[in-house]
Design brief:
The chain is an alpha/beta fold and 272 residues long. Helix content is 35%, strand content 23%. The termini are close together.
């Protein structure tokens, strides 16, 4: 099979635990781009939190952000396609979070907003501060998430984190069944809430077909449950060795973990 597109999740996949890209991966992806193969970032992250990786990869493609909620053109600095949450939906989510005592981030416009500095928030803040000023994402504490939702032009998603994952699962199930929204796990203790129907696989398919490619010409790499929609819909869906067994079982191929040269090795074997 001749693959013409490479789709990459970031956290737990292309990125190491220290949020860096392995030199082997970077070299292989640069060679792929030089060969005319399109490379796309497909992530749960906000576009403001992708800058260092997008620039390191020297991409010319748009990024699929917030688990497929929107497609962002970095060069034109604009959203190309989106299915955001409505303000009324966001306010309902916030009511549920207040009721269950769950803290969350709200991803809006060009910033990530939080009300309570949880461990997840503090880790993200520390990472942001380690970046050059021009690459730092807008990560802002607000007095009220509800007011922030009312003030936003676009609401991309909520990122909920909680140390008790059983309680977090209960809240996610409640939001799905009562509000009809999509809840996808992007980390072992983080669940993302977005508009129903949004997924990495759906947005990837839209871009692939609009660009004149086919999904069977795509190789995709991922490690978590929010990656399954793309891993199962492309020509070659590859799970990282650090993924849960349930993810590995549904992928077409399993490689080494995100500290190994697995991505580069597979690209040299199957793509280059």
């Amino acid at each position: 099979m001749s693959y013409r597109v490479i789709a990459l999740d970031l956290d737990g996949t292309l990125l190491t635990p220290r949020k860096t890209i392995l030199p082997e991966s970077l070299e292989a992806l640069n060679k792929a781009r030089a060969a005319g193969i399109k490379v796309l970032i497909v992530t749960g992250r906000h576009h403001v939190a992708i800058h260092p990786f997008y620039q390191a990869l020297q991409l010319d493609t748009p990024a699929i952000c917030c688990n497929g909620t929107y497609l962002y053109d970095y060069h034109a600095k604009k959203v190309l396609a989106a299915d955001p949450l409505q303000p009324a939906q966001a306010l309902q989510v916030i009511e549920q979070l207040d009721h269950f005592g769950i803290h969350g981030l709200i991803y809006v416009d060009d910033a990530m907003l939080y009300q309570t500095p949880t461990g997840h928030v503090e880790r993200t803040l520390a990472w942001a501060q380690s970046l050059p000023a021009a690459q730092r994402p807008a990560f802002i504490q607000v007095p009220s998430l509800a007011q922030a939702a009312r003030d936003a032009d676009q609401i991309w998603k909520f990122a909920l984190s909680h140390e008790n994952t059983d309680e977090l699962k209960q809240v996610a199930n409640h939001i799905e069944t009562t509000l009809g929204l999509a809840c996808e796990w992007s980390w072992h203790d983080q669940v993302d809430v977005a508009q129903q129907g949004n997924s990495k696989g759906k947005r990837l398919k839209q871009w692939v077909e609009a660009a004149g490619y086919r999904m069977d010409e795509v190789v995709a790499f991922g490690d978590n449950y929010n990656d399954l929609s793309m891993l199962e819909s492309v020509g070659l869906g590859v799970a990282m060795g650090n993924a849960d067994d349930a993810i590995k079982a549904r992928a077409k191929r399993v490689i080494g973990d995100n500290l190994s040269s697995g991505i580069a090795d597979l690209l040299y074997k199957e793509v280059l």
